[in-house]
Amino acid sequence: MHDQQISIKSFFIITFCCLLFFIGPSISATSQTGHTSISFEDRIYLITLFEKEGYDREFLTKIFNHKKLNRIPIVIARNINNTESRRSYADFYSAYSMRKAYRFSKKWNSVLNRAAKHFNVDKEILVSILLVETGLGNVLGRYPVISVFSSILLKHNDIASKDSQMKNMSEDDQFIFERIMLKSEWAKNEMIALLKIIENTKHHPFYFKGSYAGAFGIPQFLPSSYLKWGYDSDDNGSINLYLIPDAIFSTANYLKAHGWKKGLYRESNKDVLFQYNHSRLYVETVLNIAIKIKNYCLPVNKTKKKQNQFLRTKENNCTNNQPKTVSTEEKYNGDV
To answer: What is the pLDDT of residue 134?
Structure first.
């Protein structure tokens, strides 16, 4: 019943947001991808907004006048109303996912061991986070991060001029507008961080693609997280979260900085993971998968008995006992 109520409300809010976006001002052609072009006035607004934050106007003009910069309506809807259920995480428990995690652990064992030792974290939790976030780098997200934050900021600008209309809005409509107002401040701060990354790395503005929330790279860091906890694993002078070693070390750095203590069953580590993703279901899933990875046994092929040599190692002690798992009854806890 609870899931049904969430589903109905989610449908209404997402539908309303999409309609709201398309009837807003400054909308021109809509592409086949669902993106809408940005007007000249919109571009001037973004340039002026961040010029006030101290950025050079010429630098901003090159970025915000780029032809690829678009509004993305679905981004607005997802950021306003983000719901999840256990079904959202079910695939990560599959035999396929476990095999993939096992192979990843073997391939990157040296890097994982170095990161785990340097930051005093469990290497299995690093694999688990990267598995849940992006399928170990296979599903990185398709939204240009700069367009994600621009979409939210422009929708807020649309609404700001209509603030007086809120007096006649329904409760659901007011919730939507208040969420946009709240998310706009967050989007502005993340855009400031993104501009700093673009300036420092010299990457093309559309190099960074990620989720509807603006998180990018294999560990799905927000731009502000990249600046604080991104880690140069090989001391080459740059941090690239699309590369496995930097992704592993950056994730380990984040966990350490937020108080992770080695041990998958430590209660305090749940709070650390909650900082990474504000969802109790996420916390439960990541911990349980880490436990499964630690106790994983490669399935035995009877025609190839030599595979038995993989079943008992110092790091992967396979037994018939089921490992203890963690659980939570909370279905959803939204982000800011």
So the answer is: 97
